[in-house]
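Section 5.1 Outputs to date
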Amino acid sequence: MMMIHLLLMMGATPNITRRKAWMYMGWMVRPYPDFHIWKNISPKDLFVPVDHNVAKAASSFGVIPAERLGKLDWSDVVAITNFARTLFPYGPARIDYLFS
């Protein structure tokens, strides 16, 4: 949990989406074809790495309002991840592949 706490603290402001940090976490945590080097963190604890394409897909599914597309923040990451957890409870960040 310490690593996740550190990642949450990364960034210029407390509310940025931190896409690259969560992408890196996914590579280190998920099994093949990713690296699965960090075995003490579960894929179910990952957040979805959100960029404009992921947010646009989430908006089309009604997960976040279309008005948010120009100003994404951490609340959008949480909303998209919560939606993803309903589809993939053991690895919500997998939705990044589907939404990108």
